[in-house]
Amino acid sequence: MSYDNTAKYLAELYPAEFAKWLLPDKTTEVTVLKTELSIEPIRADYVTFLQTSSRILHIEFQTLPKSNPPIPLRVLDYYVRLKRQYNTPITQVVIFLQQSSDPIAFTEEYTDEFTNHRYRAIRLWEQDSAFFLDNPALLPLAPLTRTDSPAALLSQVAQNIAKIPDRDERQNIAGCTEIFAGLRFEKDLIRQFLREDIMQESVIYQDILQKGEFKFFYRQLNRRFGEIDISIIERVRELSTEQLEALGEAFLDFSSVEDLVAWLDQLGS
Q1: Is residue 257 within 8 Å of 225, Cβ to Cβ?
Q2: What is the pTM of this model?
């Protein structure tokens, strides 16, 4: 499951709320910028760029502190590209979702022989849960925040979700919450508090689940068979979550791309 991608969904769904959290002094209108940057374009699934009237907020979500290139260098790279493209002040925040003792999670600068670049690092497990419980946009992240009783916190999250009046928003918030809660809680405990039918009806939940399944399978295809014709990739991309799961099981028996095509043909017949 792509926890980082779920966080990106939330930030782009509620950009003003994330800006108020990370830029409390900037309450102006917020615009979501594209994630591709010029100069040999780079695009990251888990990065959000929000533009206020006076600065850009660059949010990077990390489940694990390890990455290639390392997070501090990547943050510097984004800073240079954003500065060249927009020439405006930039605030950069790396949000770590899962508790870790890795030094990278506690690092807030990139240093080299003649270079020093600073950014903010937020470790959710150190954050006050009350702030997240009071804001529907941040509520899905609440299970990852500081608490003396994780189960009681999850119960409070579920109660606050139930109070959201709009049904579609309630479903989407529940779906995202279930995903993040999986970083900290056992599945059975999550389902004691969060109704599975509401979570699975969530449009965001289904979209994230399907995209996560597709990305995993796409990596497996490339690793096993090398470059695949784009027309075949598009056929796989159009499969439902259930079909992707079935394909994942059948994939173990494939010996060539032709076996994959035959499976897809049989599915469509």
Answers
A1: yes
A2: 0.70
Gap between the Cα atoms of 96 and 83, Å rounded: 24
pLDDT tens figures, 184-218? 888 778 877 775 544 444 444 555 555 555 666 66
Amino acid at the residue 101 = S
Report whether 133 contacts 142 (CB < 8 A): yes
What is the DSSP secondary structure assignment for residue 46, as one 8-state letter? T
Please identify which residue in the block is written with the tokens 């502190």. Answer: 65
Neighbours of 111 (CB within 10 A): 12
Long-range contacts of 71-75 (CB under 8 A, 24+ apart): 71/104, 71/107, 72/104, 72/107, 72/109, 72/110, 72/111, 72/117, 72/119, 73/110, 75/110, 75/117, 75/119
Q: Are 146 and 126 spatial neighbours (Cβ–Cβ below 8 Å)?
A: yes
61/201 Cα distance (integer angstroms):
25
Phi first, then psi: what are they for 21, rounded to 5°? -70, -50
Do 145 and 124 touch, CB atoms closer than 8 A? yes
CA distances from 158 to 99, 125, 193, 254 (A): 22, 19, 6, 43
Per-residue model confidence (pLDDT) at position 144: 96
Here the tokens at position 110 are 């990139």
SS3 38: coil
Tell me the C-alpha distance between 83 and 236, whole Å.
38
**Residue range 42-80, pLDDT digits in tens:** 444 446 777 777 788 999 999 889 888 899 999 999 999
Largest Cα–Cα separation, the chain: 63
- Using a pLDDT cut of 90, give the percent of the chain over it: 29
